[in-house]
Every structure is written in structure tokens, then in C-alpha cells.
Amino acid sequence: MGVAEISEHVRPVQGGGVACRGVPGSWNNMTVGVGMHGALPDDWRDELRSICAWYEGAGVEPRLELAPFADMSLLKHCEAERFVVRNFDNVLYRVLRAGEKAVPAQTPDPRIRVRLVNKDDDAEIRLFSRIAMTGFHPPGHEFAESDYEMWARVVKHPRTRSLLASVETPEGLVPAGAGSIELHGEIACLFGLSTVHDYRRLGIQQSLIAARLNLAVEHGVKVATIGSRPGAGTERNVRRMGFQTAYTKVILARPGPGLVPARG
User: How many domains are contained in the chain?
Assistant: First the structure.
């Protein structure tokens, strides 16, 4: 799993799945893939408690991302350990065909330019990382060095390609949007889509979606996926570009005093 490969701390979960952890508040603080191999026995609750202690000892709120195909026994264990529903996340998909050319659903601003990020250019990676994070925070937010380090690992991952969107102005190109894609055989995952607040409503999101889909076609991908909060702008944009819902994940968390929830 890609998130495990870029996380600072990882531990396998008995019965299937993996727990990932970064600094408190990091988006990669999550346990995924649990309950996908049948019923979990009664004593599996000890494993769940151990996972919670692993997170809580680092000041991190335990979080599980569950697919609807997970065995119902997992929900009983989570209920007993005081997990609550934190959010939902739709996983959407689009079938790709060899030679097709994806285009934005609406004509974007002609000043938009999209290019690949150079994995060997640390300054460019840092610029991309800042843009990728900016869209998920209020203007003026200061990012920790650990945030930049996390995104650098994402950009440099061998299966990942990252793209930067800029807007042409009289003063030159202004970085305004970012997005990444993980290529894994015939499947690709679009993620990290972000637009700078001052440059929204120009078509940057759709331009980045189309560029990544075309990159996927070039690599022989047959199915592209993306995750989005139900009803969010990302979901609206990708639906306009041929995506449809595959399934909905439920995000469970166990709040506690002093524990920091994951951002995003």
C-alpha cells in the first residue's frame, strides 16, 4: 500500500491490514485494509487495543478507514472500543481506453499551464509540496518541516508522478494548483488535488484531472480511481469528467484527551 511506503512508522495488523503513523495531525495517520479476510475472532480485540495504544502513545487519535466489504465483526470490535464515525469518503472510478484523450468538462482559462514535477529538483518538490498543502488550509497557514518531508517522499516515490499547474500572468507564471497520481499496473489513483484559494474557478482542478488521466493512458492504465468527501468540489469535478462511485468508505476514530485528529 502506497501510504505505508511513505509513512515514518508502520506496523502490520493481525488478520490483515496495516497501521500507518506520522506526526500528530498528519493525514497518513490511519489503519487500512482491516477486516477484508473474513470474520475476526473475539480475541482480535486485543490487537485493536494494541493498535490504539500505538497511536495514543504518540499523541495521535486512532483512525480506521473501512471499506464496505469489511467483515461485520470488525464493527463490533470498534464499537466495543468506543470508536465513532468521523467521516465518509467516496471512492470513484473511470474506465480508460487506449488512445483516448481526456479533456476538462468545461473550457479552462487559457492561461493555465500544467507540467510534471522534476523528482530530482528539491526546490521544485518543495514548491509543489507547498501548493499541494495550501488548498487544504486557510490562507497564511504555516506548514511544519515534517509536512514538507512527507510530501517529498510522496513525490519521489517510484510509482508516483506529480503535476504542477501555473497561471500565466504579466509578471510570469504563478504556481496555482497541484495533483499527484500513483501508477500501479492497470490501475491508477489520483490524489492530492489542491488549488490555491486566489486561483479557484479558473478550471485548474479539471486541467489537472485531465492531465493525470492522459498520463495514465500513456502508461497503459485501464481504470483510474480517486477519493473524495461526498458532495465536495473534487467529486463534482470528476463526475463531470466521467467518474462514478465504486463504493463509500467509513472513517472511524477513537477520540481522547490530548489526541490530535488527522487533518483532511
Answer: 2
